[in-house]
Amino acid sequence: MPRCVPFQADPEMIINWTPLADIVETHDRFLITTHVRPDGDALGSEVGMAGLLRQKGKDVRVVNASPTPPRYDFLDPDRTFFEHYGHPIQASDLDDREVAIILDLSAWGQLGEMAEFIRGFRGVRVVIDHHVSQDDMGATFFKDSTAEATGTLVQSAVAALGGSLTKDVATGLLTAIAMDTGWFRHPSTRPSTMRGVADLMEAGADVAGIYRKLFEQNTQGRLRLMGRTLSGLKTDLGGRVAWANISQDDLRETGAIPPDSEDLIDFTVSLRGVEVGLLLIEQARGGVKVSFRSRNGLDCSRLASTLGGGGHKAAAGATVGGTMAEVEARALAAVRQALDSATVPSQT
């Protein structure tokens, strides 16, 4: 049987959680939110943080600007945990919230339709994040850009605040950490990562079951989109750069939905010899989302910053105004310039 496991903090974690403990002690009504197009780290971290706060007897609402991608429905089986801002939740419905905890982002632009509400929020703002880029969000920041996932930070907070790893909390946090480490294959995976995962498994997180729900229940739309995206893969600079585009027509004609594009960027850097991969996705409201991945040490966060975005050294992105052709030209020019001036070893 799964156990309710007290978690010991990672000794490598540098965050002082005392200010968060004070905030939790002195407030009762909490709002948790994350970035648009939420991924496994964002959603799993929300599950973990909400579980910790509810253990402390707090009133918690989890409200996001974007709907939950279907592949993560197992985190909210009765469809009551994640709420969608604007559909039907309105700003007035959240007037009683005293604290807003913002997870897995440090930039206003990533809040989507919730940005205006959070800017005007009269309560306490808290940011828990592991990304390099950061805006002045008028918040108390708990940040470690060396952490492999925001879920890792939430797991540390659970320990620091005297919480327990219930099965639900452990499932959310394992999802967060596994997805942001590429299922433990990215260089960010460390021995401490696996020690933390062991604690989550002891608390009831089912690694095999979570993997099946995430990767072995594809829809026909996702598989068709995957095939079309891969068939359109292009390369440049003698195979050092690979990229693919996804248009709104591609989504409609394959029967896919935008969240079906998650992880497709990884295929661009799976091609032998590729050092930098890009995936460009046309947005329904205009503009193009550009994702970068590198496998040679090139700093993707710097690449993304040239387009107004940010992220991590090995993975970053930006949403850019313009047509697909225009944004593609800008993104590829930035990559070519970075590779021309970089002193990083070539991939073999």
From TrEMBL:
Gene Ontology terms, MF aspect:
hydrolase activity; nucleic acid binding
The EC number(s) attached to this protein equal 3.1.-.-
Hydrolase is among the record's keywords = yes
Q: What is this protein called?
A: NanoRNase/pAp phosphatase
Q: Which UniProt keywords apply?
A: Hydrolase
The record lists the organism as Aquisphaera giovannonii
In terms of InterPro entries, this protein maps to: DDH_dom, DHH_sf, DHHA1_dom, Oligoribo/pAp-PDE_c-di-AMP_PDE
Q: Quote the Gene3D superfamilies the UniProt record gives.
A: 3.10.310.30, inorganic pyrophosphatase (n-terminal core)
Q: Which residues form the DDH domain?
A: 30-177
Where's the DHHA1 domain?
Answer: 269-339
